[in-house]
């Protein structure tokens, strides 16, 4: 029969082999995004007060980023709501701009 759970020592108590060793703390995503100087951000346009389109170099790849921003401690911070398009994805979207405009005109 297979044993599941923690092993019990001679006294019948469950032992924790990693007792006293805390796992390493994870860095928060927001601090990594703010402190990371590896990303080059070029703001192309502001769609609205809190939405931006930017081109950035991240992890050696170029991305078109359409994202909402929020203010924290007086700084503009990127939010979770948004999309990052690779160059291939951006080219596909750009190539279909006329079809999107046509569909918008038909539904307006």
From TrEMBL:
What are the Basic and acidic residues biased-composition ranges? 8-22
Using the UniProt annotation, give all residue ranges assigned to the region (Disordered).
1-36
Gene3D superfamilies in the cross-refs: Transcriptional Coactivator Pc4, Chain A
Which Gene Ontology terms describe the biological processes this protein takes part in?
A: positive regulation of transcription initiation by RNA polymerase II
Q: Name one Pfam family in it.
A: PC4
Entry's Gene Ontology molecular function annotations: DNA binding; transcription coactivator activity
Q: Does the keyword Transcription apply?
A: yes
What stretches pass through the bilayer?
A: none
What the entry lists under InterPro entries is as follows: PC4_C (IPR003173), ssDNA-bd_transcriptional_reg (IPR009044), Sub1/Tcp4-like (IPR045125)
Q: Which domain of life is it from?
A: Eukaryota
Domain Transcriptional coactivator p15 (PC4) C-terminal: start-end pairs: 45-96
> Which cellular compartments is it found in?
Nucleus
Please indicate if the UniProt record lists DNA-binding as a keyword.
Answer: yes
List cellular component terms (GO): nucleus
Which keywords accompany this UniProt record?
Answer: DNA-binding, Nucleus, Transcription, Transcription regulation
**Signal peptide span per the entry?**
none
Main location per the UniProt record: nucleus
The UniProt similarity line reads: Belongs to the transcriptional coactivator PC4 family.
Q: Which PANTHER family match?
A: RNA POLYMERASE II TRANSCRIPTIONAL COACTIVATOR
Q: What is this protein called?
A: RNA polymerase II transcriptional coactivator KIWI
